[in-house]
Fold each of these.
Amino acid sequence: MSTSASSDPGDMLVRVSGDGWAPPVTVTKTVSESDIYQFAGITGDFSPIHVDAEYARHQPVGQRVAHGVLLLGLMSAASTAWCRVAQVDTLSYGYDHVRFVRAVMIGDTVTVRYEVVDHLPLKRQYLSKVEASNQRGEIVAVAEHILWEFPTDDDPAVRSEGGWR
């Protein structure tokens, strides 16, 4: 299977590759100055390394960098894309072993690869490997993600307890 489609919001590209059930998904986005300022506004994280060009110029990296948690947001977008392809309804149970291993600069194009590596049906969990790389193929962030699948109406626990919460 190989598809390519634009996704909401705007300039993010989603690709699906592989064969069989629930193949890996990639999400690609070029990080703009506007993305960084909007993220700072939403989160309140106005650290000068993100928003002050003069300050950042005198730091070891030499320029402003994207927030690490902005990259985590792109990982979340990739998990949503995977869920659409797999046709499952889930909630994020959390991320483990998150590492921001290389700075992402304004203008960098980040590609997140999201691959489910295990399914635990009794726990209703999907375990995924997530890697983000830049346009040079350098890994910029990694994580393990756990998705929790919504129970279905025919699940015995849902029927016996009158619903789930």
Note: Residues 68-86 form the longest helix (19 residues).
Amino acid sequence: MRRVLLTIALGACIGLSGCASMPVASASGGISLLRDALSVPVAELETKAASGDARAQFSTSLVYQYGLQGTPADPVKATTYSQKALSVKGYTPITQYIAGLNGNPGRTAIINVPRYEVTAGEAQAAYRCAQAVARRVAPAVGAAACGTMEVYAEIMSRWYGGKSRWPVV
């Protein structure tokens, strides 16, 4: 009985350690996509996007969605780039040891966990902040959309070239 409980506890520890090592999407990843859309030249973004870089594809979609960097807004191109970026998927292999029972040898299993280069959470964070900046919402609302007041102020100054409707401190 004790051996079975020990085996179950060991299996749970190994299984949970695999989960703990998986990267978690953060809003800062979405903000970095928006920063790239505002600072990296459009030609460079399109070159990277054409080579399959999902982050560049999503940043390019933001450029075309909002007409950034003097580029005319093109919703069709924006949607195309966004769909490409959100569909790029890779796999993270996780090795798990499965203990043997009743004197049988244990075995190792490799589990391929899918991961996306641009997660839905990052995309939502980028869109949420971009919409707040495009609409020039009040600083408190913008800070909630972009994460912090400092990030909102930075994105506002990049978006409008230092000319903002709201005096952000």
Note: The helical segments are 2-20, 27-39, 42-50, 54-66, 75-87, 120-135, 139-146, 149-160.
Amino acid sequence: MSAAAVVAVMALGVSACGGATSQDSSEKASSYPVEITKVSFPPRQDLAQPTFFTIVVRNSGEQSIPNIAVTILNADTKTQGVAEAFGYSTQQDGVADRSRPLFVIDQQPTAGQTAYVNTWAMGELAPGASQTFTWKVTATRAGVFAIKYQVAPDLNGRAKAKLADGGAAQGTVTVRVLKAAPNTTVGPDGEVIRSHKPPQ
């Protein structure tokens, strides 16, 4: 199965039952309250410059979450279809795999890999406990991009993660990747200073 096809299975699982091929079909349909306590991704980045995308999820309910998971999607509606995490779906004809990277993943959440190319799961999360998901990524294209994240309590989509207001545990971050290489100087304390302003 191609990478895009695997993601398509996951995308369907977000809103419906994952079916017999789900990684964990034993999970029950229910709702789990969560709090997204941190979302960090620099809104202004440089092409080919590594950065970190971090999401921290807290179990705000009274029962353990079976398998806390985060899915990363491209929120840009101009590129239809599904893609790998931090990627987009090309509209070019005649290609077997439409997934193309916006950001290359250099490092991913430890022990969080699943069968899906855009989803990571970190196991059971006790009441009151928090789980951190961190990706080290490098931008491959210049432009303005919207990255969508969705939190789930399992991998098959039968159970749902809900915020305190009853809404879905998801959100979007927008990042501008600059094409021009930044000017780099060293400050008095040895700190590296990066700026896109013309040097004086």
Note: The two ends are 54 Å apart (CA to CA).
Amino acid sequence: MKKFGLVSAFSILNSQFSILNSQFSILHFLNPFAIMTMAHLTTLMTQGKPQVRRQGKWELVRRLLEKGYHQEDIRKLFRLLDWMMTLPEELQLSFEEQLSRYQQERRMPLLSHMEIRGMQRGIKQGTLQNARESVLEVLTVRFEVVPSEMIEAINQIEDVSVLKQLHRQAIAISSMVEFQQLLSQS
């Protein structure tokens, strides 16, 4: 009886990976399916090799940015590629720094100016809300009940520096009446 060795599809792919990679670099890279196929193969081939995966991810993203796709297509493909080719946190941060430098050098942002402004507005709103909550929390801890009109007045303040000052004063003030007077002066 003749014995046959067992060969997995993965081992065949592994031996053919360098051939696939060199052939892929020859492609014009216009087909999004080719990008995702290469990302999938790279992900398979780099299991347990995070440094190699980072390099493969970088090569794919760089090629993606250089091929002249529409901005929205780049974003969609990048999101999928980023999800597929996960990296340990330190390597992901390193990858993001390299991507940021690359984009700055070539003035090719992955995010539009409108998206960046939206994120900045979101951060500002979050900071503002956090400052409001901090003032209200100190008042609640110190005086137990905060009148609803005072809550409304604090929630109307749009200046983080004023809220920070009120927070410091709420910590040290002796009564809710005194705080109400400070609040009406702000």
Note: The chain has a mean pLDDT of 80.
